[in-house]
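Bug: token stream looks shifted between consecutive jobs. Job 1:
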Amino acid sequence: MSGAKDQKSYPKLDYDQYARTLPADDLWGQVKRTVAGSPVDSSHIERIVDAIRTGLQLAPGDSLLDVGCGNGALSRLLFDSCREFLGVDLSEYLISVAKSRFESLPAFEFLAQGVVEYLRKEPTPERFTKALCYGSFAYFSAPDAAESLHLLFDRFRNVRQLFIGNLPDLDRAADFYTTRTPSEEELCAHDSPIGIWRTKDEFATLANGAGWQVRFSSIPGLYSAHYRYDALLYRPAN
């Protein structure tokens, strides 16, 4: 994706500040679940929730960890599929929305904290059985992305499956950038509007390096399926 049209700079995204600019009830806009600035149709949200439930094989006894959970608008649609839930996000504003609208203690809780910091310090990581990161992994810096996968594998030993969704596919970036050619810098930047673009091979190398096996999928007909993919990470069979 290089050439004469490359931009020498790119617009940067402050996720917390961006969310604060939107109306309090624009829950999907706050987490950029939009098409051309408008919230996606509810049928697309239903497809996402079904894909997560199926991929993780969520069961009533599961304890679900959601890292990079945003404002909890997606998370709360999974509450009826698990026994307990913890959502973690760096944005204090988005977590304040999640707490005021969706938190139901003690079973369903939200925490404002950096993901890597949380994963390092969680006192009882063994309580979680499934984990999720939907739509936010591309916004982790490269070091944080690698460390988070290592920590989830090494410390959260009872997490058998990790669903990482809505990943931007570098091989299909041109299907998204139809009116301009982004710079290599933008495509590799976690603070760009889309975050870091990775090929499936690049993501598999990242996941395998932390110990995970990975299977890729996409949701047919989803608004972002033409340039994004999902990844189900799981532990190798003993």
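Job 2, same session, no restart:
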Amino acid sequence: MNALWIALSTLTVLPTPASNPTAQDLKRSVAFYPLIGGLFGGLFFLIEKINLAADLKALVLLFTWVLVTGAFHLDGLGDCLDGFFGGKDPQDRRRIMKAPDLGAYGLTGIALVLIAKTVLLIRLMGEGDQTYWLLAIPVAARWALCLSCSLFRSPEGDSGLGSAVIGHSFPILLIGSLTAMAFSIPLHLLSLGLFGIAAAISLGVGLLSQQKIGGLTGDGLGATVELTETALLFFACLNSSRFFL
């Protein structure tokens, strides 16, 4: 159970009873990431049922999305953009990513992601009942983290939270994948596109991070979540008019 509480405390701002986590607990917690995504989906399901106009409901969803995560993933996205595109070598890029201030690249990237999510959520809410998309997207985005943590390694000398969860064993990926698949069953064949996009972004961010700083960090995981969620919202909007459930 400690691994579950660690996953909850890692991905949300909710208080948990997790204590004295071991290295093994941290690795195992990754298997629960899609389940935590399911908790997000359950919360979004409740919000989706509120009798509000589509644009107002979209704003409530977005505010909740940001608040429950503590903007942690957005911070990772901003740090990655500043470091990847503002540094001259791996050491300089990692120094920039660890700095507390936010640069032009990071600020612009965060603003664009929030704008994109707002527009996409408004469109999605205007299409009627989108319960299953709101459930599946947070799950698939956190499954992308399971994949990233399985395929990539941290830069040499990294001591952040990312280094504690990155590099887990295949069984953890398998458990996370089975959990994610269970949540996406109602989408039928559309789930193939959902996970295909999530996998592509996971690979893309991981490979770019490996090229820029020699490995994947917690900031890279945050960027993976934000970019995956945005891409999947776009995918959902493209398919919402054909949504048959």
